Amino acid sequence: MKKVLIVEDEESMRLGLGDNLKFDGYNVDFAEDGEKGLNKIRENKYNLILLDIMLPKISGFEVCKTIRKEGVKTPVIMLTAKGEEIDKVLGLEIGADDYITKPFSLRELLARINAVLRRVENDSEEQIKIGKLEVDFNSYTATKNGNNVSLSSKEFDILHYLWNKKNKNVSRDELLSNIWGNDVYTTSRTIDNFILKLRQKIEDNPNDPKKIITIHGIGYKLLT
Ligand code: CA
Predict the structure, then answer these.
(1) How far is the CA of 12 from the centre of ligand 1 (A)?
(2) Range(s) for CATH 3.40.50.2300 in the chain?
(3) Distance 22 CA to ligand 1 centre (A)
(4) Could you tell me the distance, in angstroms and rounded to a whole number, from the CA of residue 80 to the centre of ligand 1?
(5) Per CATH, which fold does 3-121 belong to?
(6) Is residue 47 classed exposed, middle or buried when 0-12, 13-18 and 19+ CB atoms within 10 A define those classes?
(7) Span 128-222: which CATH code?
(8) What is the per-residue pLDDT across 150-187, written as a single tens digit (0 to 9) for each?
(9) From the CA of 2, how far away is ligand 1's center (Å)?
(10) pLDDT tens digits for 106-151?
(11) For residue 47, what are the contacts with CB-CB under 8 A and spacing of at least 6?
(12) Looking at the chain, which residues constitute the CATH 1.10.10.10 domain(s)?
């Protein structure tokens, strides 16, 4: 089931959209201001974010800019009001995928959502194979020899990041800032522990890794 986050301060709008999306088969989560939205995006994995622009605490523009800077690629559709500066929404400056101007019909919104999701699915590689592990980043599932393998959302994130940089060195600092953002309590030791757990799920022999290898003094490299 596709997971959508609705960041919108207007309660009737938020709940109305939520009900309709649930009815359409989406799993829906909510945030009523920019700060909560940002935290939810950092802690969860969504397939799509509907992001209002005028929000308490942190504006939708800022939220979108921030998550893009942190490497979040989840598609974003901005909910704009007439007269808002929409020209820069889709550009590099903000990094949204589309926008829709209020008031809009539900049909119009669902069409935009489908279009954006289709576009994203077509140009990103979401089903991959590492060793014997088959990973589906759309549904957040993994299997090995036909059996389900359970991965935490952070493990998925790390794997996804390494996959996008496959066959290149990735430093611990890079992983820290891209996966954990500004969480000051995470150390490189945390990353090493996650890598150990991932190796147990991926490698034939976790003590002699052939897929996620250690680059001494730097970090890791995913070999394909
Ligand atoms: Ca608003």
Answers:
(1) 11
(2) 3-121
(3) 21
(4) 8
(5) Rossmann fold (3.40.50)
(6) buried
(7) 1.10.10.10
(8) 998 889 889 988 988 899 999 998 888 878 876 667 78
(9) 24
(10) 888 988 898 888 777 655 667 888 888 899 887 788 999 889 999 9
(11) 2, 3, 4, 74, 75, 117, 138
(12) 128-222
* C-alpha 115 – ligand 1 centre gap (Å): 24
Ligand 1 center to 59 CA (angstroms): 9
pTM: 0.57
The rounded Å distance from CA 53 to ligand 1 centre is: 6
Confidence of residue 199 (pLDDT cuts 50, 70, 90): very high
**How far apart are the CA of 31 and the centre of ligand 1, in A?**
12
Distance 69 CA to ligand 1 centre (A): 23
